Amino acid sequence: MHIKGKTIFFDTPPVIAGHAGVAGKKEGEGPLAQDFDAIFEDTTMGQQSYELAESAMLHDAIIRALSDANVSPSEVDFVLSGDLLDQCMGSSFALKDLEIPSIGLYGACSTMALSLSVGSMLIDGGASCVVAGTSSHFCSSERQFRFPLEYGGQRPPSAQWTVTGAGSAVLAQKGSGVKIKAIQIGTITDLGIKDANNMGAAMAPAASRTISDFLKDTNTQPQDYDMILTGDLGYTGSELLYELMQQDYKIKLNGYHKDCGMLIYDLKEQDVNSGGSGCGCSASVLCSHILKNMEQGKLKKVLFVATGALMSPTSNKQGNTIPGIAHAVLLER
Amino acid sequence: MHIKGKTIFFDTPPVIAGHAGVAGKKEGEGPLAQDFDAIFEDTTMGQQSYELAESAMLHDAIIRALSDANVSPSEVDFVLSGDLLDQCMGSSFALKDLEIPSIGLYGACSTMALSLSVGSMLIDGGASCVVAGTSSHFCSSERQFRFPLEYGGQRPPSAQWTVTGAGSAVLAQKGSGVKIKAIQIGTITDLGIKDANNMGAAMAPAASRTISDFLKDTNTQPQDYDMILTGDLGYTGSELLYELMQQDYKIKLNGYHKDCGMLIYDLKEQDVNSGGSGCGCSASVLCSHILKNMEQGKLKKVLFVATGALMSPTSNKQGNTIPGIAHAVLLER
Fold first, then answer.
1. Tell me: the pLDDT tens digits for A203-247?
2. Using the beta-carbon criterion (under 8 Å), do B82 and A121 form an inter-chain contact?
3. Partner of B278 for a Cys bridge, out of A317, B50, B162, B298, CB 3.0 to 4.6 A?
């Protein structure tokens, strides 16, 4: 790898050898239904808690991705995973029977981009096969971050709906899959947003920074990509992203940008307010819909930028701001 | 790097160019007092919450490590950090003003070994400078994992005392410091322990597995090391580790092994039951006492194996087991 500015370029780009995106019932009723590798009508996954249901979904996505890559767990050097739950318990319990050396990550909703980024650097450095993945579950997130489901709390228009879903990708040194040409590890960015019902606003500044840094380092413009794809800014966050890009960098992003949180649901019909969110949002959309479209030649060059809101319920209740981060992954077919 | 078994060997070993370990009042009254780079009598660090106090301590350790390495934040490619708190808020708030691309990790108490391991692979892969670090704070841990301090809960003899402290190391491609010759990323290991007051027992199986795998891959025996150093098994966990190593692998570890959780406190005088614990335990001991002893030639070859208990208060209350993990770092002077 070589570093220019903040972007890491791979001379021999790692390849996505297999991938899978799975989702829950509500996501299966949305516009991407036909692209998910599995839709679980029973989102308890037969488990005794929502947290273990999330783990089971991530486990399922990883097994499907390994199967798609025709790789057995014993051939994998490392699995990189993390999630939104306290102490990343979604991942720990998903991975515990796989018997793969595990690198735990924490990147909130940016985890899919973070795991692909770090995984790519490890492949470039000499690892032969790594697995990246993450998950979220509406019910476990609501409980840990907001209110018990039974409470039936009201949501403001800027609030988002945590996706029940998981995604996983298997990275290898070579092969015929989609290539990871470059990545950028984000820098924590905090413009002082404190409203936990407006995550899009908390994360938009980080997205704007990473995207503009990436465009600068690669000497490219938005129109050079088939799509600049953010993770879960939602409607509110995407509008703010356009404003920030225009205002701070004089870059017009509107028209070249999509957001996984807006792709996964029908915003008019599915009552999700500003759109989908959660680690599983970008993971399930990227690892099914987007990668399938790339493999079918419908998309050739996608800049995937997943954002994370680095908050905890504790930090929020203590009146702290919500720092954001955005990691970027350049995918090319 | 090249991989043999589960161990990653570096042909050009990354170097620890700078390091710092800082600690709180109680730790400053223990046997390692003279080696800490700073001892904070006021462990609130002047902050409004224990969580922000922990962040301030980690921030301090990172700045000291950078200063020791004579490196400015703008010269660092990545900072790798995580902690025990919900959504790793200790690290997020510690790093947010440093303006360094941030890779969030989750490894519970194994985080110092995890950050050094991943950091070493990134340096080996082409990064020029990375910072690794982690922290814990007695008061934030008690509140998030056990009881409010005011409750004055009783502790069983197997319980440990969360260290108030932080440690950080700066890794570079070359220099005259201690070298990282090899690392091993651990595999999640779960023998079914459910007692959150006996973390040592939950983590000992992972330690035993990683140490035996490492000895096998390197074709070495415990006597080939000046010290095999675990993170925070404490007295109970260390005794269990000796038993498991003897029983499962016919390896006598007793006599060659030390544990940061037993080094940091006077177990007879300081009322810490089984010893110290927390991410900051191994981080503060390794990044002060151990690395200083290595630089002074008192220790030449240390196998650092930090263990993590991958539990959350939620997983524990739901009756789940406590999966453990242990990552290894071979340090040589």
1. 999 999 999 999 999 999 999 999 999 999 999 999 999 999 999
2. no
3. B162
Tokens (6 digits) for A230: 């953010």
Tens of pLDDT, residue by residue over A175-207, are 999 999 999 999 999 999 999 889 999 999 999
Interior angle at CA A8, CA B114 and CA A18, nearest 5: 70
Q: Per the CB < 8 Å rule, is B104 touching A102?
A: no
**Cβ pair A199, A237 in contact under 8 A:** yes
∠ Cα A98 A104 A106 (to 5°): 140
Interface probe with A: pick from B106, B110, B114, B314, most Cβ of A within 10 Å: B106
Contact across the interface for B96 and A6, Cβ inside 8 Å = no
Q: Which residues of A touch B142 (CB under 8 A)?
A: none
Partner residues linked to A184 by β-bridges:
A7, A328
| CB contact (8 A) between residue B188 and residue A95 | yes
A127 φ, ψ (degrees, to nearest 5): -70, 150
DSSP, residue by residue, A296-317: TTS--EEEEEEEEE---HHHHH
Residue A252 near residue A222 (C-beta atoms within 8 A): yes
Query: Which ipTM did the prediction report?
Result: 0.98
Is this model's pTM higher than 0.95 or not? yes
Q: With beta carbons less than 8 A apart as the criterion, state whether A297 and A224 touch.
A: no
Please report residues of A whose CB lies closer than 8 A to that of B88.
106, 310
Cα distance between residue A52 and residue A90, in whole Å: 7
